[in-house]
Design brief:
The complex is a heterotetramer.
Chain A (H helix, E strand, L loop, with lengths): L1 H13 L36 H13 L3 E5 L3 H6 L11 E3 L5 H15 L4 E7 H6 L2 H9 L4 E7 L39 H6 L5 E6 L3 H12 L5 E6 L3 H4 L6 H11 L5 E4 L2 E5 L8 H5 L14 H21 L29
Chain C lengths: L1 E5 H11 L4 E4 L6 H12 L6 E4 L3 H13 L4 E5 L1 H16 L5 E6 L13 H5 L6 E4 L3 H18 L3 E6 L7 E5 L3 H7 L16 E2 L5 H33 L7 E5 L5 E5 L3 H11 L7 E5 L1 E3 L3 H7 L5 E6 L2 E2 L3 E2 H10 L7 E6 L11 H8 L22
Parallel strand pairs in C: 2-3, 2-4, 4-5, 5-7, 6-7, 11-12, 11-14, 14-17
Antiparallel strand pairs in C: 1-8, 6-13, 10-12, 15-16
Chain D lengths: L1 E8 L4 H14 L3 E6 L9 E9 L14 E4 L19 E5 L4 H8 L2 E5 L1 H9 L5 H12 L4 H11 L2 H16 L13
Parallel strand pairs in D: 1-4, 4-5, 5-6
Antiparallel strand pairs in D: 1-3, 2-3
Classes of the chains: A alpha/beta, B alpha/beta, C alpha/beta, D alpha/beta.
């Protein structure tokens, strides 16, 4: 009851829900009257077309106002909180690069100690999650904190100017894995983080993509409802680092899913419980050719480029086989995660 | 001076103080309201997207009202129209064009069955009256649109029945009498329309009288005179000209007997005739046409002017078609034809720009024939109109059909027309211009908005959904009177409505609102000033272009910042 | 109530009396007994706290940072490598002005590996912006730990309570632990008005550009200086509450008229005190027990050293290439003071080297030796000539 | 101030013995200090612990270099000639051993008494942990602290059967030595 009253107060204050027809709305600006929670506000300084900013905005909308966030060092942190401004409308703390999971653990312990239910979120990029913050994350999962950890995966250290991380895909160029006479970009593979996370036997771990916002938000809502550690990795294209036009952020993210290189899967207690089938599997070249970081792979007449393309295709095929991603058109789940439109919005007016 | 907070904390949402809108260096997003290709292609001027929108909401009567705001005869056009809207439909390359034609017919039939009232008010008693020559589809449309403009209409028809070509030139297998009569009767019953039957221009009334007595005169006489046809001066003694043969058949239900029939021409009448002759017992019916058949490389200028569905049905029924050819010579035994010499031919560009027909020497071949039917078109009966005709037809300069002040041409009588839908559209446009003339308003202008091509859409957001097909009588069961194509039905019609891509117009899918990384799209509860539900907050929009790229309908476009 | 308690156990009990909401720690010698004892109190239900058994000191510091930021009274403890692994977080906690308390069971820093006491660890983070208080015995460690919770709350500066590893942590002595009611009166409920709170959602840990960074550091420095009086006042309040004080910022004992002074921190003070008592032939000295190392009680030190001819400064860590750390700092402080004593800076007890009570006489004697080594108890015979 | 050094091997409870002795002193109203010679040694390695007790505050924190008393918990340590290093003149050594006391005294040149504390411990508490028995014997010999003080200190550490067994053990151990034989050095 008390929680309800508090939530109502928060919603009133931050415009989480549209006003009922009977409520006076005159004093609210259209921005204030948005029928969604604006956890991440405009005026942040992300690049044009930033996938991470979009992902964070979507996550906040679904997570709602009764949360607190621990944010690792990275683009998201830098572009949202140049003092004295903050784009956040939830309690938010940035400590360091590698400790957001641990800081969040402390916040969650504080909530437990004080008998409060505010859900704690931890945010990190792929650098802060796959690499430097990995240990703290593992500890957080093992200790079973009631935290949703969201990794905004843009596949390199973008904040410092595009250096390779263990999440950078094989053969992608970064400033520390450039292509040259002897090298075809990153020599190693993208770390299979989700399997490692799932091996902690936590209640829920999933991958999502900004190209599928409804699916992403459903996963956030699901994780929010779990009392225990949950993990979400969100594929978030970086137009600057991946070298594609800012308008293509969603297109690129979508192609990554459609070719099988970034499978959208859900694991509960380590077991795969759901996947998003690919409606029409595309060749990886459809994905690669959109991005400058793979430009060396699409050169004609270079046998090394052919080999690396084939390698990436094999990796994509592997994902498709392992997770059974190839969609069947008649499968009722085929479009469950795919945003389709109809007049009046994604859910309205669809024939049942 | 901003005072430092302890530990440099920041207050929530203060980034709003930082207007990222000035990062937009080159382009900004706008809502463009482009024309949907169906609308752009519709000679009747229908906005199919608009009435499909009503259908999507489940409002069938409103959909019909939206439809008849342009075309008062959907039960007729929904049966006879070659539906260029479907040819233009951006969905055709995805999983098949929308079955606009069939849904239109269903709506028209629903309106008749339910007695829905046309969305017109009776004109004022002292409203000006417009004279209309011809009660064919163009004249009827004009009369109806007069009411919509607050004018009275007085129709003069030479024949004893209204309907024009709809009644005289289209077989019942395509357009049965019942819906045609019902629709025409409903329309003519509207207060403010007066019909004078068996009143012929040049005989019973003159143009000069009408001009004097009426606020405007609209000419929709159709083409009643067959064009002269001969081959190198030879004409068979028992020549049956196509349209009159068809009219005869429709009046008396009989054809002259023939085994090998050659039909020369390239329109709907020619194909109708082929099919009827075949059904009447002719063993071989061959259509010889100078145009090309539909195919991926066929130039639209070169395409045979036949409803595609009808062409398919004709082939299905065993009609042979020789395209890109003409009858080069009649082989006569006395005055009777026993065969034809056919030669290949194509329309080639000429220096003047108009296409010329070039036949290719060495491609001549002879085929047996005991009847040759020319079906090369008709011309306007020049009685009382001589001074307005340019050759066989009217050639108005204006798209609104204006021939001179207060006089407008409509329909097939215009040299650049040829469909029922075109006549209906002409009626609406001519009335619009006439009403402006009568009221002393500036003349109307055409809708010059750009058309939304399929390349402007983002197809990934549309779930695949196959096109609905209406039932059809199989070829072997087809008769002279039963309608071949059936009713699509309510379920399929509503499902088709869901398939509309809403090309170029907002369908409120929320994509822009959902996908803006900068929260710079604001959703409005009331309609925004541009009719959508979204506003661009240019204070924060960085101009990334993501919303435009992900807009399924192409409704959002990036335009130069200065625009 | 007086009890014979091992130092670590006493600290655990003192922390428990302060009712922390969250404790996070990673075991490391010689801090281990502290966390073991806290764990035991939690296991027995004597302490109701969220005890977070983290996977590293780095996370221990991060957890208490997060907990305190979320409005919880938080405590951690570590030593040596643990301090260094925490280093990045320690700077962060202080820079964000997060109130919390940490015990450092002082231990040498590797390499070579040494599990024994010196001050190399806390000295390595002396510039982190934490308050650093040194306890000379276990009673002081207990009292200072309790005071630290009040100080951190009042100053919004994190407090590090330094106690010599083993020498204090593993020594059983008689400790007077106050009654719970005394603590409850002394220590107000934890309040942190910048806490993370959905009803007033602040953003902590922002990016500060060059236009304000200097001001951030200034305010931090100013806060540390203001903390001097808070430390002193808190000790006075403690004395009022318990009849016992820890010596505020620093205390002076011994012969007030002596020409020689000795400054030391931590457990060394007791040994020097014993040496002074047991070797009167070495001569008298003024013994200055420094409790507050950060913020540094500059003025109090100047006053305490007035009238001295010689000031022996004992370090338990060195800055290689410069010398003793405390010695260097005090030399800088006294540089502009007229008639300041001559400074003799020596490091003692590095890496657990036992400090005998004879050291007192040896130090006094060494005043005469201009070549007395910096590391006073290093035996050159143990070194190859080229390494001397 | 009286200083003790306790020698033993890891696992024999030498540090516990030091803590118990100091705690017993506290129970008897004295000040105390007890600590191990902190090492990284494991079970079985030689271990040293130190105890200081006195009636006034104890400031000195160095290791005990000149003990008044030595308590040796393991017979095998007697091979170390430095065992008695720093032992004050007149200092004494109590050894857990079945060996002849005179022989040990002669070897190290100090007063020494051997007690088979391990045997007593095995018999009374079922485990070869000699520390409490040795402490009790020591208190019986010296009378430095009443045996009750040790019993009270034990009660602060143990419960139930372990406590009962140990209380029986210290009673037996105290009686196994000539009461007050070393009493004259109490104030050394």
């Amino acid at each position: 009851m008390q929680d309800q009253a508090r939530l109502a107060e928060l919603r009133q204050k931050f415009g989480r829900e549209p006003a009922a027809p009977s409520e006076p709305t005159a004093e609210r600006t259209p921005r204030e009257a948005q029928p969604r929670f604006r956890g991440l506000e405009s005026g942040h300084r992300a690049c044009q077309g930033c996938g991470e900013a979009l992902a964070a905005r979507l996550v906040m909308e679904s997570a709602g106002p009764d949360v607190m966030v621990a944010n690792a060092t990275g683009c998201l942190e830098v572009f949202t909180t140049p003092w004295p401004q903050s784009a956040w409308r939830v309690p938010w703390i940035h400590s360091l690069f590698e400790n957001s999971a641990a800081v969040a653990s402390g916040m969650e312990a504080a909530m437990k100690a004080k008998g409060q239910n505010t859900k704690v979120l931890a945010f990190g990029g792929d650098g802060g999650t796959y690499d430097i913050g990995f240990q703290a994350l593992s500890g957080m999962l093992e200790r079973y904190h009631n935290i949703l950890y969201v990794c905004y995966d843009n596949e390199a250290y973008m904040n410092t100017g595009i250096q390779r991380s263990s999440s950078t895909p094989h053969a992608a160029t970064t400033t520390t894995s450039p292509a040259g006479k002897e090298r075809m970009g990153k020599r190693h593979l993208k770390k299979d983080l989700l399997s490692i996370i799932a091996a902690h036997h936590i209640p829920y771990a999933a991958s999502a993509s900004v190209a599928y916002p409804q699916d992403l938000q459903r996963k956030v809502r699901y994780a929010m409802g779990i009392d225990g550690p949950t993990f979400l990795v969100v594929h978030s294209p970086c137009p600057l680092g991946w070298r594609h036009a800012s308008a293509l952020t969603i297109e690129v993210a979508r192609k990554a899913v459609e070719c099988g290189l970034f499978p959208l899967v859900e694991l509960e207690r380590g077991a795969v419980t759901n996947i998003m089938p690919i409606r029409q599997v595309r060749p990886v070249t459809d994905y690669l050719k959109l991005q400058g970081r793979f430009a060396h792979l699409t050169r004609d007449g270079d046998p090394r480029a052919q080999e690396e393309r084939d390698h990436l295709q094999a990796l994509a095929d592997y994902n498709i086989n392992v997770f059974g991603l190839a969609g069947d058109g008649d499968d009722p789940v085929d479009t469950s995660g795919i945003t389709t439109v109809g007049r009046g919005g994604p859910l309205a007016g669809r024939p049942q | 001076m901003t005072v430092l907070t302890r530990g440099a904390y920041a207050a929530p949402g203060t980034s709003l103080d930082f207007k990222t809108g000035n990062w937009r260096s080159t382009e900004k997003p706008v809502h463009i309201h482009a024309k949907a290709p169906c609308h752009a292609a519709c000679p009747a001027g229908e906005d199919q997207q608009a009435w499909f929108a009503k259908l999507q909401e489940g409002h069938v009567e409103e959909a019909w009202r939206e439809l008849v705001s342009a075309n008062p005869l959907p039960a007729a056009t929904g049966r006879v129209c070659p539906h260029p809207c479907e040819t233009a439909c951006n969905r055709k390359d995805v999983d098949g064009a929308l079955a606009i034609h069939n849904v239109e017919r269903w709506l028209g039939d629903e309106a008749i069955a339910n007695g829905w009232a046309y969305p017109v008010e009776p004109p004022a008693d002292d409203a000006p009256t417009v004279a209309i020559i011809g009660a064919g589809p163009g004249g009827l449309s004009a009369a109806y649109h007069c009411l919509r403009q607050g004018l009275k209409a007085e129709i003069f028809e030479a024949l004893p029945e209204a309907g024009g070509l709809l009644r005289s030139g289209i077989p019942r297998t395509r357009l049965p009498r019942e819906p045609l009569n019902a629709e025409i009767d409903r329309l003519l019953a509207l207060p403010g329309i007066t019909l004078h039957l068996q009143t012929r221009l040049g005989r019973d009334v003159s143009l000069a009288e009408l001009k004097a007595s009426h606020a405007a005169v609209l000419l929709a006489p159709g083409c009643q005179e067959s064009k002269h046809w001969d081959v190198g001066g030879a004409v068979p003694s028992d020549l049956h000209e196509g349209l009159s043969l068809l009219r005869e058949f429709m009046d008396h239900g009989q054809f002259p007997e023939a085994h090998n029939v050659v039909v020369h021409g390239g329109g709907n009448t020619a194909v109708d005739l082929c099919r009827l002759m075949k059904r009447a017992g002719s063993e071989h019916v061959t259509l010889i046409t100078a145009s090309g058949l539909p195919g991926p490389d066929t130039d639209p200028d070169d395409l045979i002017n036949v409803v595609p569905r009808e062409l398919d049905e004709a082939l299905e029924e065993g009609i042979e078609i020789i395209d890109h050819a003409t009858v080069n010579r009649l082989i006569m035994k006395g005055s009777k034809v026993t065969g034809v010499e056919v030669v290949s031919l194509k329309k080639e560009p000429s220096a003047s720009g108009r296409k010329r027909r070039v036949s290719f020497e060495g491609t001549e071949r002879v085929m047996e024939a005991d009847m040759v039917i020319p079906c090369i078109g008709e011309r306007v009966d020049p009685d009382g109109l001589n001074h307005l005709l340019d050759g066989s037809y009217f050639w108005p300069d204006s798209p609104f059909g204006k021939l001179e002040d207060g006089v407008y041409a409509i329909g097939d009588a215009r040299g650049d027309r040829g469909t029922v839908a075109g006549a209906i559209g002409d009626g609406a446009k001519a009335v619009e211009a006439a009403a402006a003339h009568i009221a002393g308003r500036p003349q109307p202008t055409l809708d010059t908005r750009a058309e939304m091509a399929s390349t402007g859409l983002n197809p990934v957001y549309y779930a695949l959904s196959p096109r609905a097909e209406p039932p059809k009588v199989p070829p072997e069961a087809r008769t002279f009177t039963t309608e071949i194509e059936g009713d699509i039905g309510r379920t399929a019609a509503l499902a088709e409505a869901q398939r509309c891509l809403s090309c170029g117009n907002c369908l409120a899918c929320d994509n822009c609102w959902t996908l803006c990384p900068d929260n710079a799209v604001i959703k409005t509860q009331e309609l925004a000033s541009d009719g959508s539900h979204y506003l661009f907050d240019l204070d924060y929009c960085k101009g990334c272009g993501l919303c435009a790229h992900e807009c399924p309908t192409g409704y959002i476009q990036m335009v130069p910042e200065t625009a | 109530m007086r009890e014979a308690l091992e130092g670590s156990q006493a600290i655990a009990r003192a922390v428990s009396l302060c009712k922390p909401d969250v404790v996070a720690a990673y075991p490391i010698t010689p801090q281990t007994h502290i966390v073991e004892n806290i764990s035991k109190l939690v296991a027995e239900g004597d302490l109701h706290t969220e005890f977070v058994s983290v996977e590293s000191e780095f996370s221990a510091a991060s957890v208490v940072l997060g907990a305190a930021a979320a409005g919880a009274r938080a405590y951690t403890a570590t030593a040596s490598q643990g301090v260094l692994l925490m280093a990045e977080v320690l700077f962060n906690i202080a820079g964000m002005r997060i109130p919390l308390v940490m015990t450092v069971a002082n231990r040498a820093v590797s390499a070579p590996l040494s599990i024994w006491n010196d001050h190399g660890d806390s000295m390595a983070v002396r510039d982190s912006g934490w308050i650093q208080l040194h306890a000379a015995d276990n009673q002081e460690a207990v009292d200072t730990t309790i005071q630290a919770f009040r100080i951190t709350q009042e100053t919004e500066l994190p407090v590090m309570v330094c106690m010599d590893g083993f020498i204090l942590t593993h020594t059983l002595e008689v400790i007077d632990l106050p009654e719970q009611s005394v603590i409850d009166d002394f220590l107000p409920a934890f309040e942190f008005n910048r806490r993370l709170d959905p009803a007033d959602p602040k953003s902590l840990g922002t990016l500060v550009d060059p236009g304000y960074f200097a001001e951030v550091r200034h305010s931090h420095h100013a806060a540390m200086q203001k903390a001097l009086s808070v430390i002193k006042d808190t000790d006075s309040a403690w004395e009022t509450a318990t009849g016992r004080a820890c010596g505020g910022l620093l205390t002076v004992e011994g012969d007030p008229g002596a020409a020689v002074g000795i400054v030391a921190m931590g457990s060394t003070v007791g040994t020097l005190r014993a040496g002074m008592a047991h070797t009167p032939e070495a001569g008298p000295a003024k013994l200055i027990k420094l409790r507050a190392f950060r913020p540094f009680p500059t003025q109090a030190l100047i006053e305490a050293t007035q009238g001295l001819d010689h000031l022996i400064v004992i370090d338990r860590a060195i800055s290689p290439g410069l010398g003793g750390i405390l010695g260097t700092e005090i030399a800088a402080i006294l540089a502009d003071v007229p008639n300041a004593p001559k400074i003799h800076n020596h490091a003692l007890g590095l890496g657990g080297r036992d400090i005998p009570e004879t050291i007192y006489a040896d130090l006094i004697e060494a005043i005469k030796d201009p070549d007395a080594p910096l590391i006073f108890d290093a035996d050159m015979a143990k070194l190859a000539p080229e390494d001397r | 101030m009286i200083e003790f050094r306790i020698h033993g091997r890891g696992g024999q409870g030498s540090v516990a013995a030091a803590y118990l002795l100091a705690a017993a002193a506290f129970e008897a109203g004295m000040m105390c200090q007890a600590f191990p010679a902190f090492g990284a040694e494991r079970r079985g390695a030689p271990v040293t612990a130190f105890v200081r007790i006195g009636h006034g505050p104890i400031h000195l924190r160095s290791q005990v270099r000149t003990p008044d008393w030595l308590i040796v918990q393991d017979n095998s340590l007697l091979i170390d000639p430095n065992l008695t290093a720093g032992l004050k003149a007149g200092g004494s050594m109590l050894v857990n051993s079945g060996r002849d006391s005179a022989e040990v005294a002669q070897t190290f040149g100090c007063r020494a008494l051997c007690v088979d504390a391990t045997q007593m411990a095995v018999e009374e508490i079922g485990r070869p942990i000699p520390n409490t028995a040795l402490l009790a014997a020591f208190l019986g010999l010296t009378g430095i602290l009443p045996l009750d003080a040790l019993a009270t200190a034990l009660k602060g550490r143990f419960h139930g059967k372990v406590l009962e067994d140990n209380l029986r053990l210290i009673e037996r151990a105290a009686q196994s030595v000539p009461t007050g034989a070393w009493k004259e050095t109490e104030d050394a």
